[in-house]
Amino acid sequence: DQEGALSLNSFVFAGGSGTAELSYNKWGTIKLIVTDPDNPAAEVSCPDMQFNPKEFGITFSDPPPKRDFFYLNEDITLTITALDADNAVIPNYQGSVSFTPAEGLVLPEQPYEFTSEDQGKHVFSLFSNKEGQFTVKVNDTSHTSVIGISTPIASRYAKIVVESQNALVGEPADIFVRLVDSKGDLVLSDESTTFIVSLTESISNESASTKAVTIPVSIKAGLGTFKLTDNQVETVTVSVESTPELPFETGIITFTEDARRMGEGGVRIIYWKEAKDEKR
């Protein structure tokens, strides 16, 4: 439905036949009709010529700051663009594409047929359900030689662990949170994950309080802390809800009036030693 620019040099005849190179800047099928201006009845048409993309450009969204990977089940966007021989977008491309993903990437239903609204580019949503590095291959379902292959993306498992501890009634307690990978090591290369908490009291009367139930807490270099206060003896179970959504382990905070349970002077300090592996 969209007219394109056809470039055709002059025919040079030799022995009653001639050849010429031509180019067309749109996707689709055209028919070339040749006539002799001195003899309009002498009209010849060639078979239909299909013009396809040279290839597909494939790009993934970038991970959040400081990360060069995505977490399991984290949303990833995949942009597919139909490109011509000059790597320009073909705005009228309305072909159908299918995906060949590596095992572990969950893609939308396929094949997908481009529409006029796409203007030669479409964004898909996907996620990974296993750790590793993954690529996606895309091909035109009618012309399988027209392909695109993505650069690899990485996916990793991580969970948030709330440390269980004792705390003094009436005193603000520092609650410690760790972001760890599948080996239990701190995830140091993450400066964007945040979380809020929810509290479950053994005596349900809302005596425990923290700003972290409404104000997100940031995790830096695998660690996060927030203040929690309770004015009565009880246990408080701390759960978290993170962005991006990650699995978590709850922590049990035991509020006591006995300073001896807190260590000498009633002060508790947590030390965390990051495991070092020279091969990593």
What does this structure look like?
It is built from no helices and 29 strands. With 280 residues, the chain is mainly β. The strands form nine sheets. The chain has a five-stranded mixed beta sheet, with no helix packed on it.
Short account of what is shown:
By secondary structure, the chain is mostly beta strands. It is built from no helices and 29 strands. Helix content is 0%, strand content 48%.
Strand percentage lies at over 45%
Helix content: under 10%
Instruction: State the helix count.
Output: 0
Rounded radius of gyration (Å):
31 Å
> Are there runs of 5+ residues with pLDDT below 50, and where?
264-268
Arithmetic mean of pLDDT: 87
- Tell me the distance between the termini: 56 Å
| Sheet having the most strands | 5 strands, mixed
- Secondary-structure element pattern, one letter each: EEEEEEEEEEEEEEEEEEEEEEEEEEEEE
Derived structural class: mainly beta
Total strand count, please? Answer: 29
Sheet with the most strands: spatial strand order? 24-26-22-20-28
User: Which word captures the global form?
Assistant: rod-shaped
Layout of strands and helices, then pairs:
Layout: E1 6-8, E2 12-14, E3 17-19, E4 22-24, E5 28-30, E6 33-36, E7 39-45, E8 49-51, E9 55-60, E10 70-71, E11 76-83, E12 96-101, E13 105-106, E14 112-113, E15 121-128, E16 132-134, E17 136-140, E18 147-149, E19 153-156, E20 158-162, E21 165-168, E22 173-181, E23 194-201, E24 208-209, E25 217-218, E26 223-230, E27 234-243, E28 248-249, E29 251-256
Question: Any key phrases for this structure?
Answer:
0% helix, mainly beta, 5-stranded mixed sheet, rod-shaped
